[in-house]
Amino acid sequence: MAILERLVCLGAFLACFSLIFLFCGFAEARTNWPGIVPSKDGTPISYEVYGEGVPERPVLVFVHGWSGDARYWRFSAEYFAKNYKVVLLDLAGHGHSGSGRSDYTMKSFGEDILAVVQAAGAEKTILIGHSMGGSAIAEAARLMPDRVVGLVGVDALENVEFHFSPEQKEQMLAPFRQDFPETCRNLVGPMVSPDTDPQLREWIIEDMAAAPPAVVLSSLENMLSQYVTGEAATIFKEIPLPVVAIKGSLAWPTNYEGNLRYMRSFDDIVLEEGDHFFMLNRPEEFNKALEQAIDIILNK
Q1: Do residues 116 and 37 touch, judged by C-beta distance below 8 A?
Q2: In the 8-state DSSP scheme, what is residue 123?
Q3: The model's pTM
Q4: Phi/psi at 106 (nearest 5 deg)?
Q5: Quick one: angle between helices 180-188 and 213-229, nearest 10?
Q6: Alpha helix (H) ranges present in 93-146?
Q7: How many CB atoms within 10 Å of residue 121?
């Protein structure tokens, strides 16, 4: 009987211990759950926060490119969360964010970023944008100049003076309107280095080709329009911030003189033989380059 009583007591103790353990684990897990915040127009925007950071260091906000999402920063989030507070987000119509808009403009993407920065309590930030994300972070900086200390374009912002004619814009958009998935594959394929792991290469191409056509066609048209009107460059007159571009040598050439006609300062860091997705297929080199870019901005 005594043995039975002891077993009952032991069982009760273990049950209580298990509940405490599970509760603590549950509470800890909750801190890593994605958040949802409404953008200015009410569209729900998904975001994730990693790391604690320290007060004197800016929060690093990573913004994906056209037809992508927050997963494209998977190798950078963990690396930088050791020393910084890191925020990833899905722009409206991408990833896990809402897709109820009729028009996906760069300004509306800037509003998405602003909503996330406010929700994350980030008072001082460096905005990091890949490809189209470069245009989005410029718009975000215009909306919250008191919260941004610098911009990093990842294969973006190398030549804000580049100009499209309205006819060239329409010629580029026409194949996407006719057959978005196949046109997207034809566009993205050459932008991924042949040295990339085949599985990763296939994932990038097929993931981007699977994006909602209405969303990415609208965003592409709006981004290209900024290079027709010249707003891609003139916006930097309103955001006197240091800008650093991290680019692959296989990408478009840098227009230093053109950029400096509009930007407070401009520097670039070149990864030799780098393609458009070096944060995925060469993450160690990219993370080191981003550390260098952050140092350049903070020293400005």
Answers
A1: yes
A2: S
A3: 0.89
A4: -65, -35
A5: 60
A6: 106-119, 132-143
A7: 10
Element (H, E) at 13: helix 2-30
User: From CA 224, how far away is CA 80, in angstroms rounded?
Assistant: 32
Task: Give CA–CA dist 265/281, Å, rounded.
Answer: 29
**Are 15 and 1 spatial neighbours (Cβ–Cβ below 8 Å)?**
no
What residue type is assigned to position 27 of the chain? A
207-230 pLDDT per residue, tens: 999 999 999 999 999 999 999 999
**Of the candidates 51, 48, 53, 52, the residue with the CA atom closest to the CA atom of residue 73:** 48
List the one residue out of 293, 241, 272 whose CA is nearest residue 130. 293
SS (H, E, C) 216-234: HHHHHHHHHHHHHHCHHHH
For the segment 70-88, what is each residue's pLDDT rounded down to a tens digit? 999 999 999 999 999 999 9
- Sequence-distant (6+) residues with CB within 8 A of 284 are none
Measure the CA angle with vertex 79, ends 159 and 284; round to 5°: 60
pLDDT for the residue 54: 85
Question: Does the pLDDT of residue 205 top 80, yes or no?
Answer: yes
Percent of the chain at pLDDT above 70?
90
Q: Which of 35, 36, 38 is nearest to 49 (CA)?
A: 35
pLDDT by residue (tens digit) across 99-144? 999 999 999 999 999 999 999 999 999 999 999 999 999 999 999 9
Angle (CA) 226 230 235, round 5°: 80
pLDDT band for 49, please (50, 70, 90 cuts): very high
The first and second tokens of residue 211, run together, are 């994006």
Angle at 103 between CA 97 and CA 106, to 5 degrees: 75
What number of residues does the chain have? 300
**Kind of pairing between the strands at 242-248 and 148-154:** parallel
Strand partners, 126: 60, 150
